[in-house]
Each structure stands twice: as structure tokens, then as C-alpha cells.
Write a structure and sequence with these properties.
about 220 residues, alpha+beta, 4-stranded antiparallel β-sheet, 11 strands, about 25% helix, globular, binds fe (ii) ion
């Protein structure tokens, strides 16, 4: 049995997450400040527990072809030290789709990798930390997460949520439990997001992601 402290490169990635949620501004929002604090507190308990690791089989998905560029771009942005830490473990990540029914166009252009959570590789019950990778020009259809409060931290690329704003590396976006959101990605660069989910252990134990019933179909990439 190996524990987190036996996996220093993974521990450094989690240390980078801690820094992002500790140093990043809440922009004056009490809700975002509270979310940041909850992520830090839950992560701090993981560091203290030095949990058992549950190694997962490295698994690629088609979008992983964009990961190198995404990490390179993240390395030139405000979260460059996270990019360097990720560069050390990027060949160990287990990329997944998470949906039972995934539109074919999206299967080519999207995947996520959990770093910490009930399914490992770093075991935690009340927090999930991971990465989402989206190819250029992707539309990630409308979805929500019941009972889960989610934040996205932008590492690379330019993207929008609900057509409300364009987010650059360093931005933190809070999606409250059940809030519908739809992502679009610019056509020049892939989008790499770090994300955090906080919820009860019972909620995080089940993986039931689904798109909104009226979700628009992802559009084809620009010709
Ligand atoms: Fe989401």
C-alpha cells in the first residue's frame, strides 16, 4: 500500500491547488470566498490524513492530443507553476468522459481526469479535484450537478460560460449546486481547466453526470 507522501509529484500538484484556492482573489464575492475556504479546508484534511493512493490505469481519450499545447500555454500564464507540476504527472492521468450518452462530436473534443476524490488516485470523500480538457472550438453542452458546488479555474485557453464573459487563465468561475452551465471554447487554443467539486460524501460517491434534456447539439469545429 502506498500513501500520498510516497507520491511527491502528486502532492505538489495538490499543493498548487491549495495555492490557487488560498492566494486567488474572491473578487469581493462572499460566496466565492466561502467556496475557496471550503476547498482549502477539505484539502488540508487530505494532507493531514496522508491517504492511501488508489492508482488508476493511465487512459487517453482523443482530446489528449491537445494536452501538450494546453500545458505549454498554461506555462506562460499566471498559473505557470501548476503547469509545471502537471507536466510531471500528465502521463499518469486517467482521462474519462463520465456521461452514459456522449454526443459523438464531444467524444473527440472533451475529457476530464480526476486527481483526488472517492475514486482516487488520491482518496478523499468530500472533495473532488480534477482537470477538464476541451479542444479548440468545442461547445460543452448545458449541464448541471445536483448537490455539488463546482468551481473552474482557467489554466489555458479562452472560453466562455453561458455566453456571459470570456475567461482568461487565472479566472475562477463558481457554479452553485444545480446551476445550468454551457461552455464554449475559442478557436485558437485548447482550454484546460482545473476544477473542484464540494458535496457530501454520499453525493460524490455516485457519478451521474447528465446533460440538460434540451441541450443543443455540439457544433462541428470551424471549417
Ligand atoms: Fe460543470
Amino acid at each position: 500500500m502506498t500513501r500520498l507522501r510516497d507520491w511527491p509529484d502528486w502532492r505538489y500538484v495538490l499543493t498548487e491547488f491549495d495555492g490557487i484556492y488560498r492566494r486567488g482573489s474572491a473578487g469581493g464575492s462572499a460566496a466565492i470566498r466561502s467556496h475557496q475556504r471550503q476547498v482549502r479546508e477539505r484539502l488540508s484534511r487530505v494532507f493531514q490524513a496522508n491517504p492511501e493512493m488508489l492508482p488508476t490505469e493511465p487512459t487517453a481519450k482523443p482530446v489528449v492530443a491537445h494536452l501538450g499545447r494546453a500545458i505549454d500555454l498554461a506555462g506562460t500564464g499566471p498559473l505557470a507553476s501548476m503547469a509545471k507540476a502537471l507536466d510531471r504527472i500528465d502521463d499518469q492521468l486517467s482521462w474519462a468522459w463520465g456521461y452514459d450518452h456522449l454526443p459523438k462530436a464531444l467524444a473527440e473534443r472533451y475529457a476530464y481526469a480526476e486527481l483526488l476524490g472517492p475514486r482516487g488516485p488520491v482518496i478523499a470523500t468530500d472533495l473532488i479535484l480534477g482537470l477538464v480538457l476541451l479542444a479548440p472550438s468545442t461547445v460543452y453542452p448545458q449541464h448541471s450537478h445536483d448537490g455539488i458546488e463546482e468551481s473552474y479555474v482557467s489554466l489555458a485557453g479562452a472560453w466562455s460560460e453561458n455566453d456571459a464573459a470570456v475567461y482568461a487563465p487565472g479566472s475562477l468561475i463558481l457554479n452553485r449546486a444545480g446551476q445550468q452551465h454551457r461552455l464554449t471554447v475559442g478557436d485558437r487554443a485548447p482550454c484546460l481547466l482545473a476544477y473542484a467539486w464540494i458535496a457530501t460524501p454520499e453525493r460524490l460517491a455516485k457519478l451521474d453526470m447528465h446533460f440538460a434534456k434540451s441541450a443543443p447539439k455540439p457544433r462541428a469545429p470551424h471549417a
